[in-house]
Specification:
The structure holds 3 protein chains of 3 kinds. Chain A contains 4 helices and 9 strands, in the order βββαβββββααβα. By secondary structure, chain A is of the alpha+beta class. The radius of gyration of chain A is 13 Å and the shape is globular. The two termini of chain A are 22 Å apart. The C terminus of chain B is likely disordered. In chain B, the strands form 3 sheets. In chain B, strands 1-7-6-5-4-2-3 form a 7-stranded mixed β-sheet, with helices on both faces. In chain B, strands 10-11-13-12 form a 4-stranded antiparallel β-sheet. Chain B is globular. Chain C is an alpha/beta fold. Chain C folds into 2 domains: 115 residues, Alpha-Beta Complex (Aspartate Aminotransferase, domain 1); 257 residues, Aspartate Aminotransferase, domain 2 (3-Layer(aba) Sandwich). Chain C has 14 helices and 13 strands. In chain C, the strands form 3 sheets. Chain C has a 7-stranded mixed β-sheet, sandwiched between helices. A 4-stranded antiparallel β-sheet of chain C has the order 10-11-13-12. In chain C, strands 8-9 form a two-stranded antiparallel sheet. Chain C is globular and about 80 Å long. The chains are: A alpha+beta, B alpha/beta, C alpha/beta. Chains in contact: A-B, A-C, B-C. At the A-B interface, loops of A face α15 of B.
Chain lengths: 125, 507, 446
């Protein structure tokens, strides 16, 4: 069982101190199909929980990625610019999107753990 | 699958000819035109002469003619076969239209010639406007928009201008789930937030949901009628009443006007504006993606806010209103494009309307609806019908009939290509799963429809019989087979560039 | 009716299959109160001969440009188009094909769009170009929208040398988008200091090259000023034939080029359809509006083409699309591509050289005749200052069978400084005799 938390919008979160690394779940990348482009936020940008943060595109669809948590963008995964396929190959590893310095760690309380998320996606499909 | 035994030395396969890019056929110094030596003069370019080679290839006329002839042979076309593209209305393009549009008295006119020298051109625009207003039952029409989506923008901008003129700063536009993507995109450019309205279980706008969403903050409701499920909105009069009661405008997307020309006038339905796609309803050629033309009919409430320019008929003949101070009581919101409109498309559309006449246009829409219902009746057992009929000019199926076959709507479409048909519209509208939207138009003969029906039945049976791999491999009889769209989008190559090795060798 | 294949027998038989008593019954969802029982009040159908006769009579009421000495420009320049262009674009496989969403049966369209994009990028000196827009004015307006997306700034500065219709089209498209549009006054004398207008909120500066009065200027200083301020430089061109002679905008720091491409391959068409060219720097490609054809391979590894980056477009992004545009000027773009392929490097350069040389000759004749030319530099268009208002002069000469040019007041009425100005364009279609006649006629008004 991993230490990841999941949102209902299919983002995963890995917390280290007050920095949350965020990406999209394996389920989400499977639904999207081949990812061709990721538009990432600017470093330094303030994001709010459930507000727009990034866009992930496949050939036939573009999906908003919402910030699962409120905070400030401190780093984005520049490798995705050249290799968007990392999102498909390693969604919870090299395919991460951004790191957010949290304003309010209590927002994590509402998130699912992996088992709960798996149940959640099973009920969706 | 085609094996090595069919490979040829050239890569050509009989009439199917491989053709490189024009840039790969270059020979410096060659040209397809003969131009005289320019007279010797002192340059007045202010020292900004182009210093380097541009990189355009040199070819002779026969090479260019052969190149583009070969390219043309890699295209499907309505001249060659059946195009059941729902909502796109691929109908026959009469060649009389082409001949008329090329008369020098129309094609060789400058848009800014003195009005006295273009009276016939202004008369043509005025005549076409009369036909359009009569067929739609609307009092005014803005002729300048360059295409359907441009017309949509024109209509919504007119509505916003009219609202602002009465001091009304509404912020939202309502759009059904089944709408064309241009509707929300247009609303966004007009500065409006978009709110989706669901359909009911009969494939029409849910009237109660519409009423619930309507309030004093709604600027307009954008409806396509007949809608993109191929159905007439049978509660449209009630919708119009509700929209107007809320003080909003009723925008109709006229993409599907082809179904009702001569049978229903949109003006009688209570709409305030509607764009027409001349290429859909009035047979101007699709041209591989354009150019279009999108006149917008307007109600009395909106007519004064239409964009410049427009044609007026005065005592001394026709003239153009091009500037705001010439506009009398009207308050145009602006200008849509450089000049007056798509004249070349106007000539074609009028030639078509005059050929059909009032009686023929009504017969054409009747035949379009008859053909679509014939497909519905003939295929509803083998495919899965999304909503009960009767339908209008197009019929919507979903992918239920493919369940468990491992064949997708896309696979099915690609197999249709091998059978010699262009696929129908797929995955649109978004309201049903794996949509297959078929529009036969009035152009298809019964024989052509019967062949299509038998082909669909055959393919549906093949899918159910477990022949999924053949569908995954399709198409195999085309100049190219399935193309890697993922690779194209990940690392876009959007232009030809000279081979770097050759470039170095040349230096 | 010649366009309708169904016979009465077909219709009867098909209704039986449908199980409907009549075609009318298929329209049962239409409320009775609005169902028309009879055809509307318009003329009945006619044969080809009758339609041709009526429309030919309408065409004959007009003075075709090619029938008289002709000097109009101002955004639409008359050029000779080789016969093979018109022949090829009327091949049914081009004329009557759909948008190339099914690439396996649209390689012809996709390949010529790829060739078109390459040609546009080459002549403008830019990295990439799209598959065309409605016309030059809408390209210009879309360029301003794109600059707003790229810079995330709102405001736009429009040069006084920009064609007034382009200014108005841009103002219209941005009308409801919280953008301050700074429109500079007409730049008759060519001393506009547009760099001074750039502010923190400026998304782009739009200049025209050559400008509406025909003048050419080095754009690099303006580009530098834009880039220093984090704004983009949009360069508009009315006359792309100029690119056969002039340094391209891409060599002078342009970020976006928005041009009218109709001069190549297409007739004047009384204003439409035209073909907007749209080119940009590669780094901005995902913010570009319009269709794009891209290279890829098929499952057998063979090179082919597809429409790509379509997630920018309205059918996918809906309200978040880069533009609401759902079309390109396909057939006009094809005509452009074929004509430019026929011209090639040598032909394109020579065509431009002829245009310029003839314009120099006319300027020299004007000088000799004492007719004042306002612009000291030009490609193929001159601004002439007459001693009286230009519009009545043009109307008078039209009666004499000379289409002398475009009065600037036609584009911007009510400005005293412009009333006497006449725009005169010269292309390869103008003869020495035409120039003599114009010169003699204008001498009286000078």
């Amino acid at each position: 069982m991993s230490d990841l938390k999941y949102s209902k919008e299919h983002e995963w979160i890995r917390l280290e101190d007050d920095i949350a690394t965020v990406g999209i779940s394996n389920f989400a990348q499977e639904q999207l199909g081949d990812v061709v482009f990721v538009e990432l936020p600017e470093v330094g940008k303030q994001v709010v929980q459930n507000g727009d943060a990034a866009v992930v595109e496949s050939v036939k669809a573009a999906s908003e990625v919402y910030a699962p948590l409120t905070g400030k963008i401190v780093e984005v995964n520049a490798a995705l610019e050249e290799d968007p396929e990392l999102v498909n190959q390693s969604p919870t590893g090299d395919g991460w999107f951004m790191k957010i310095r949290l304003s309010d760690a209590s927002q994590l309380d509402g998130m699912m753990d992996e088992a709960a998320y798996n149940d959640f996606t099973a009920s969706q499909s | 699958m085609e094996g090595n035994s069919t490979d040829t030395y050239t890569g050509n396969r009989g009439l199917r000819l491989e053709e490189p890019l024009i840039f790969e056929q270059d020979a410096p110094g060659r040209s397809g035109v003969d131009l005289p030596e320019p007279p010797p003069v002192q340059s007045r370019l202010g020292g900004l002469d182009r210093p380097d080679a541009i990189g355009l290839p040199g070819l002779s006329e026969p090479q260019v003619v052969r190149h583009y002839t070969r390219l043309s042979q890699k295209n499907y076309a309505i001249d060659a076969g059946f195009y059941p593209l729902g909502s796109c209305t691929m109908k026959h393009n009469p060649r009389l239209n082409e001949k008329m549009a090329r008369l020098p008295g129309f094609a060789d006119l400058h848009p800014l010639q003195p009005e006295a020298t273009v009276q016939g051109a202004l008369r043509l625009i005025d005549t076409l406007a009369h036909w359009i207003k009569t067929l739609t039952g609307m009092p005014a029409v803005a002729m300048s928009p360059a295409a359907g989506a441009h017309g949509e923008l024109c209509g919504l901008m007119t509505a916003r201008t009219a609202l602002e003129a009465r001091g009304d700063g509404r912020k939202r536009v309502l759009v059904p789930d089944s709408a064309h993507g241009t509707n929300p995109a247009t609303a966004a450019i007009c500065g409006y937030a978009v709110e989706a309205i669901p359909l009911n279980d009969r494939g029409r706008v849910d009237l109660n949901a519409l009423k619930d969403a309507l309030d004093e903050d709604v600027a307009a409701f954008m409806l396509t009628n007949p809608n993109t499920c191929g159905l007439f909105e049978d509660e449209i009069l009630e919708q119009a009443q509700a929209v107007h009661d809320a003080g909003a405008f009723f925008y109709c997307d006229g993409a599907n006007f082809n179904a009702i020309v001569g049978r229903v006038r949109p003006g009688d339905l209570g709409i305030d504006c509607m764009h027409l796609n001349l290429h859909k309803t009035f047979s101007t050629p699709h041209g591989g993606g354009g150019p279009g033309s999108g006149p917008v009919v307007l109600s009395e409430a909106l007519a004064d806010y239409a964009p410049r320019p427009w044609v007026v008929h005065g005592e001394d003949g026709f003239s153009l209103v091009e500037h705001e101070d010439e506009a009398a009581q009207a308050a145009p919101y602006g200008r849509m494009k450089a000049f007056h409109g798509q004249m070349g498309m106007f000539v074609r559309a009028l030639a078509y309307m005059m050929s059909h006449g009032s009686d023929g246009l009504r017969q054409a829409s009747s035949d379009a609806v008859l053909n679509a219902n014939y497909l519905l009746a003939s295929l509803s057992k083998e495919l899965s019908l999304a909503y009960d009929g009767p339908c209008m000019h197009e019929v919507l199926f979903d992918d239920g009939f493919l369940k468990g076959t491992d064949v997708t709507t896309l696979d099915f479409a690609k197999a249709m290509i091998d059978e010699g048909f262009h696929p129908m519209t797929m995955y649109f509208p978004l309201v049903v799963h794996g949509a297959l939207l078929m529009e036969p138009t009035e152009t298809e003969s019964r024989e052509s429809l019967d062949q299509f029906i038998e082909t669909m039945r055959h393919l549906a049976k093949r899918a159910k019989d477990g022949d999924a791999q053949a569908f995954h491999d399709a198409p195999v009889h085309t100049p190219r087979r399935r193309l890697d769209e993922t690779a194209a989008a990940r690392r876009p190559i959007l232009r030809w560039r000279p081979d770097p090795v050759q470039g170095e060798a040349a230096e | 009716m010649r366009y309708l294949p169904l016979t009465e027998a077909d219709r009867r038989d098909m209704l039986v299959v449908i199980g409907a008593p009549s075609v009318d019954s298929l329209f049962s969802d239409v409320p009775d109160s609005v169902h028309l029982a009879e055809p509307v009040d318009l003329p009945a159908h006619q044969g080809e001969l009758e339609v041709e006769r009526a429309l030919t009579a309408m065409a004959a009421e007009n003075m075709a440009a090619g029938s008289v000495p002709f000097f109009l420009g101002a955004g639409a320049y008359r050029h000779h188009v080789p016969a093979s262009v018109n022949h090829l674009i009327q091949r049914g496989e081009f004329l009557t094909s759909y948008t190339p969403y099914q690439p396996e049966v649209s390689q012809g369209t996709l390949q010529y769009l790829f060739e078109f994009q390459t040609q546009v990028a080459l002549i403008t000196g830019m990295d990439v170009a799209n598959a065309s827009m409605y016309d030059g004015a809408t390209s210009c307006a879309e360029a301003a929208l794109m600059a707003r997306r790229v810079t995330r700034k709102a405001d736009v500065v429009l040069s006084g040398g920009l064609h007034p219709h382009y200014t108005e089209t841009t103002e219209t498209l941005l009308k409801f988008l919280d953008s301050t549009i700074d429109v500079l006054p007409p730049d008759i004398d060519g001393n506009e200091d547009i760099a001074a207008q750039i502010a923190d909120g400026t998304a782009c500066v739009v200049v025209q090259y050559p400008d509406m009065f025909g003048r050419v200027r080095d754009l690099q200083p303006i580009a530098d000023a834009c880039h220093d301020a984090g704004a983009l430089l949009v360069v508009v061109m009315n006359e792309v034939v100029a690119l056969g002679a002039l340094k391209p905008p891409g060599d002078m720091g342009a970020d976006i080029v928005a041009a009218e491409g109709r001069s190549i391959g297409n007739p004047l068409n009384f204003g439409g359809p035209y073909v907007g060219l749209f080119a940009a720097r590669e780094k901005y490609v995902r913010q570009m509006p319009g269709r794009l054809a891209g290279e890829t391979v098929d499952v057998d590894g063979k090179r082919g083409w597809v429409l790509t980056l379509s997630t920018r477009e309205q059918h996918i992004r809906r309200e978040k699309a880069t533009s609401n545009i759902c079309t390109n000027s396909g057939l006009c773009a094809l005509a452009f591509t074929i004509h430019l392929s026929l011209l090639g490097e040598d032909g394109f350069r020579r065509l431009a050289a002829i245009n310029h040389a003839k314009t120099v000759q006319l300027a020299d004749r004007f000088a000799a005749a004492g007719i004042e030319v306002v612009n000291d530099t030009f490609f193929n268009e001159l601004t002439v200052r007459l001693a009286e208002p230009a519009a009545p002069v043009v109307d008078r000469l039209a009666v004499e069978g000379i289409l002398a040019g475009v009065p600037v007041s036609r584009l911007r009425p009510g400005d005293d400084a412009l009333t006497n100005l006449l725009l005169v364009a010269v292309t390869e279609t103008v003869t020495d005799d035409d120039m003599d006649r114009l010169c003699a006629a204008l001498k009286e008004a000078a």
